[in-house]
């Protein structure tokens, strides 16, 4: 049976609409269609005609005996029978009263039950309707939300890519500035050495032509022994300078793979040392940067990204220390993890900034000296490698950044 | 709400005994049935389950004829006190003309009393009764038990409430008729003007209360 048909049945039942506590009539408790059979059997038992009359007022019938059928104070109806059978009519009336009392009790209970069920049902239906409305609202919101979130995500992705690019360019620019200085220095003394060597060569040539013309003292005059010795030294120095430049260029080439996205296996120790060498020129006066401990020679990672992350951490350390400061990079391998700990004895980070160091664009440095993405980027890279990065610091006592990378199966 | 049948010269009033489970509502009705001697008293109709918990309601009809011939008929009902039967409780409460709130005096039942009273106020609002205007008497039952709140404590707690307080031991019948009399007195105030009880039916408040309850045996 469908719900609709069920509702119809309820509505069609007059009892369902009747309040349980109303005054029940004889017609309700003993419907007309039940009466003929009941009265026939009662008449047979009585051995005389009987009649049932509805209503409280006593019937005007002088020929017959009338017994009230009464549940509370007013008769529901009257039972009429032969006057000579008065006692029996009373008995039957009492029997009917008892029967009707039970029926009334049952009818009241069922009407009350119906009332409470209908009230509950109506409340449930109202609740259901309200729920459905709110569900519709949420569904609508959800579809819009998906579209809006997708839009925002793609916008954020674009911005993020731009920012990463900007940060990389910034670090490359900083490196380039350091490199220029570092290359300029050996080039300066190589050039100066070569100038001196050219002057020596002119003196030696002049002395040799004088000697060919017979002036044997010319050789003594130019102090040839000193000249030749110094000449060799100038050449050695210049070769060392050229080597230094070659080393710088090689390291720089290593760092130039910051744009490489693909996974590769690298020698972490070599990579770290290369990075330290690259950054050494940027250290303050008398400061030291050293690398120690065990680093995996076969670490599977995105080398460009990892180098960028380590560079950013070291760059922060360099900016934190003053003249004579110390930066230590300590490596260790244990339990399937590569630990890289970068600690400095620099200015440290005040407690109120500590919670936000990884937040994008959060910087305490002067405008123009950093956009506040260094550590954000480092963290993103380390997390993408499946590792974790934590930072502890105390203002005035230095900072330690602890990086853990999974060694995986590539060791 | 009071039902006035002018043709049959009959005024029917519904009084409801409300309260937490097992606080003695049915017992109140049974004692009233035994003790009251009004002119008209019907059979008490109970619908108890096997463990003496009221499942639907109990009903006791009482009545009398005013000097004018008007039949004044009371139907006293109890509600099922158990929390689960709230739908039934609400349906029994609807159309009530007056309420007796039967509270359990035991200290352990203080919370249940409070919850049930709140439920009464909520349900009254839901079935469209004006709770503030509804004639109501609060009866603290089971005064014979140990570890009950003292009358002083109860009076102090209910000092701010405007409803009459009564104390009863329904099991022995003490205070049961008194509770009903207090309710009838409040009810009279509510009905007198509307149905011209004094002027037309020559029924004073005292007579209304006395005729409703009869002589206490």
From TrEMBL, chain A:
<dbReference type="Pfam" id="PF02518">
    <property type="entry name" value="HATPase_c"/>
</dbReference>
<feature type="domain" description="Histidine kinase">
    <location>
        <begin position="178"/>
        <end position="409"/>
    </location>
</feature>
<dbReference type="InterPro" id="IPR003594">
    <property type="entry name" value="HATPase_dom"/>
</dbReference>
<dbReference type="InterPro" id="IPR036890">
    <property type="entry name" value="HATPase_C_sf"/>
</dbReference>
<feature type="coiled-coil region">
    <location>
        <begin position="114"/>
        <end position="144"/>
    </location>
</feature>
<dbReference type="InterPro" id="IPR036097">
    <property type="entry name" value="HisK_dim/P_sf"/>
</dbReference>
<keyword id="KW-0597">Phosphoprotein</keyword>
<dbReference type="InterPro" id="IPR004358">
    <property type="entry name" value="Sig_transdc_His_kin-like_C"/>
</dbReference>
<dbReference type="GO" id="GO:0000155">
    <property type="term" value="F:phosphorelay sensor kinase activity"/>
</dbReference>
<keyword id="KW-0418">Kinase</keyword>
<keyword id="KW-0175">Coiled coil</keyword>
<keyword id="KW-0808">Transferase</keyword>
<dbReference type="InterPro" id="IPR005467">
    <property type="entry name" value="His_kinase_dom"/>
</dbReference>
<dbReference type="InterPro" id="IPR003661">
    <property type="entry name" value="HisK_dim/P_dom"/>
</dbReference>
<protein>
    <recommendedName>
        <fullName>histidine kinase</fullName>
        <ecNumber>2.7.13.3</ecNumber>
    </recommendedName>
</protein>
UniProtKB/TrEMBL annotation, chain B:
<dbReference type="GO" id="GO:0003924">
    <property type="term" value="F:GTPase activity"/>
</dbReference>
<keyword id="KW-0342">GTP-binding</keyword>
<dbReference type="Pfam" id="PF00025">
    <property type="entry name" value="Arf"/>
</dbReference>
<dbReference type="InterPro" id="IPR052705">
    <property type="entry name" value="Gliding_Motility_GTPase"/>
</dbReference>
<protein>
    <submittedName>
        <fullName>GTPase</fullName>
    </submittedName>
</protein>
<dbReference type="InterPro" id="IPR006689">
    <property type="entry name" value="Small_GTPase_ARF/SAR"/>
</dbReference>
<dbReference type="GO" id="GO:0005525">
    <property type="term" value="F:GTP binding"/>
</dbReference>
<keyword id="KW-0547">Nucleotide-binding</keyword>
<dbReference type="InterPro" id="IPR027417">
    <property type="entry name" value="P-loop_NTPase"/>
</dbReference>
């Amino acid at each position: 049976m469908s719900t609709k048909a069920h509702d119809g049945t309820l509505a069609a039942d007059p009892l369902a609409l009747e309040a349980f506590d109303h005054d029940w009539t004889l017609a309700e408790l003993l419907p007309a269609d039940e009466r003929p059979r009941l009265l026939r059997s009662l008449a047979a038992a009585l051995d005389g005609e009987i009649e049932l009359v509805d209503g409280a007022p006593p019937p005007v019938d002088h020929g017959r005996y009338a017994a009230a059928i009464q549940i509370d104070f007013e008769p529901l109806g009257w039972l009429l029978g032969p006057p000579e059978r008065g006692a029996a009519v009373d008995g039957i009336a009492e029997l009917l009263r008892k029967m009707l009392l039970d029926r009334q009790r049952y009818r009241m209970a069922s009407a009350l039950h119906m009332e409470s069920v209908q009230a509950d049902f109506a409340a449930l239906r109202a609740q259901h309707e309200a729920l459905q409305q709110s569900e519709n609202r949420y569904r609508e919101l959800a579809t819009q939300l998906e579209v809006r979130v997708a839009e925002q995500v793609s916008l954020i992705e674009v911005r993020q890519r731009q920012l990463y690019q900007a940060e990389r360019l910034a670090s490359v620019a900083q490196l380039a500035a350091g490199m220029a200085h570092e290359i300029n220095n050996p080039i300066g003394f190589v050039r100066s050495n070569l100038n001196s060597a050219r002057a020596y060569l002119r003196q030696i040539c002049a002395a040799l032509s004088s000697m060919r013309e017979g002036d044997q003292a010319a050789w003594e005059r130019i102090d040839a022994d000193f000249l030749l010795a110094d000449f060799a030294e100038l050449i050695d120095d210049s070769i060392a300078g050229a080597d230094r430049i070659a080393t710088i260029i090689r390291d720089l080439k290593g760092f130039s793979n910051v744009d490489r996205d693909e996974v590769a296996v690298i020698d972490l120790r070599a990579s770290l040392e290369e990075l330290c060498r690259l950054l050494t020129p940027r250290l303050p006066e008398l400061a030291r940067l050293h690398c120690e401990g065990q680093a995996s020679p076969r670490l599977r990672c995105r080398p460009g990204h990892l180098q960028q992350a380590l560079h950013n951490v070291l760059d922060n350390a360099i900016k934190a220390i003053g003249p004579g400061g110390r930066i230590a990079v300590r490596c260790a391998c244990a339990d399937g993890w590569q630990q890289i700990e970068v600690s400095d004895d620099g200015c440290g980070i005040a407690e109120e900034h500590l919670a936000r160091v990884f937040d994008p664009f959060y910087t305490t440095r002067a405008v123009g000296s950093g956009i506040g993405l260094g550590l954000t980027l480092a963290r993103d890279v380390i997390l993408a490698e499946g590792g974790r990065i934590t930072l502890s610091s105390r203002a005035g006592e230095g900072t330690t950044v602890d990086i853990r990378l999974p060694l995986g199966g590539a060791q | 709400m009071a039902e006035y049948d002018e043709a049959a010269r009959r005024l029917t009033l519904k009084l409801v005994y409300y309260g937490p489970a097992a606080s003695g509502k049915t017992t109140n009705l049974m004692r009233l049935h035994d003790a009251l001697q009004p002119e008209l008293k019907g059979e008490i109709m109970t619908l108890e389950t096997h463990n003496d918990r009221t499942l639907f309601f109990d009903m006791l009809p009482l009545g009398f004829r005013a000097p004018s011939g008007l039949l004044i008929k009371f139907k006293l009902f109890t509600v099922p006190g158990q929390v689960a039967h709230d739908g039934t409780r609400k349906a029994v409460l609807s159309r009530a003309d007056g309420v007796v709130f039967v509270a359990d005096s035991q200290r352990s039942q203080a919370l249940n009393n409070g919850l049930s009273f709140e439920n009464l106020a909520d349900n009254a609002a839901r079935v469209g009764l004006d709770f503030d205007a509804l004639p109501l008497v609060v009866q603290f039952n089971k005064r014979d038990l140990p570890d009950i709140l003292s009358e002083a404590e109860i009076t102090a707690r209910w000092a701010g409430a405007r409803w009459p307080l009564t104390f009863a031991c329904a099991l022995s019948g003490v205070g049961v008729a008194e509770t009903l009399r207090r309710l009838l007195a409040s009810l009279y105030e509510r009905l007198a003007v509307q149905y011209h009880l004094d002027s037309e039916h020559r029924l004073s408040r005292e007579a209304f209360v006395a005729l409703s309850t009869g002589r206490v045996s």
